Amino acid sequence: MKKLLPLFFFLLALASCKKEKEETISAAPQVANSVKYANGLEIYRHNGYSIVKVTQPWPEAKEGFTYIMHKKGAAVPNSLKSFTSIEIPVKSIVVTSTTHIPALELLGVSGTLTGFPGTDYISSPRTRRHIDEGKVKEIGANESLNTEVVIDLAPDAIVGFSISNDNKALANLQQSGLKVLYNGDWTEQTPLGKAEWIKFFGELYGLEKKADAAFNMIEKEYKAAMLLAKKSETLPTVLSGAIYQEHWYLPQGSSWAAQFLKDAHAQYLWAESEGTGSLSLSFETVLDKAKDADYWIGPSQFTSLQEMLSSNPHYKEFKAFQNKQVYSFSSKKGKTGGILYYELASSRPDIVLKDLIKIFHPELLPEHEFTFFEKLK
Predict the structure, then answer these.
(1) What is residue 8's three-state secondary structure?
(2) Is the pLDDT of residue 272 over 50?
(3) At what angle do helices 349-360 and 208-229 cross, to 10 degrees?
């Protein structure tokens, strides 16, 4: 029996070491979230892999998605094996929103894009060249993707978005074995929150440092512009939106668009309204409150004052219209008609803010040239 005791303790120690090792690889260590502003994105970076959580893939989502983005051969804890995993860096990708295009370009990986729904909406000259060269396939529309074309492309990742948990096209692609990841950048309601989603793509390509650097530059420029705007002694009043099917639609007070106006040191006349979507008001209600507004920003899709009058002659009752202080982003388009603002603005809020400061306080940015906005003639 005495001879067996050393063997018993050896086996006990061996089992104990094995258990400790299993526990070590079963639980991911605690690290800080690398995301500062985005409400619907969390990124936890570990040695060889990252845990990427999309907590708000669409408005009022009951649950989110967790993705494990790992390098080849990385030791991923057993506790994470139930989540969708993807080996990085990806070599080919399909994205489904024009807001994804700038992130790929900022990271220098736009050449990995192989498919997109509605390629005519893409404005970027660089990505348009890829399209013209046949390197980016047309794959239909977001809610009705051409699954046969996408499956034939066999991308390493499909980055999609959905307005609810019922997106049959993306579900079918996932069932076919393709890696589908939901992106919720469009649900963010702060300029820097939207822009920070470049980190999502940084993780996919193993370019987290490059993504951090790009975002840090945008953050720095945005904050500097905001401080500059505060130096102005004027606080101009602002009207937005236009009539569509007998209702005037304009941004609610907590929306992305309203935040830009506030940060540009302007008084948006509906800044106190609650919500992050759109208000639907009568013409009379808007006229009563905004007749004497100094500026009119974003009058729907109109690209000229005459076009506005042709649609509704009562627009001329607004002082901003009379003084030709109407600015639109609908005029700046790519060669196939895609509006630049819808593609690039969410990734470069610093440029949007500078455009608005140039409009409201031109003396603060005398050398700045408009990227998105244009004064209607």
Answers:
(1) helix
(2) yes
(3) 10
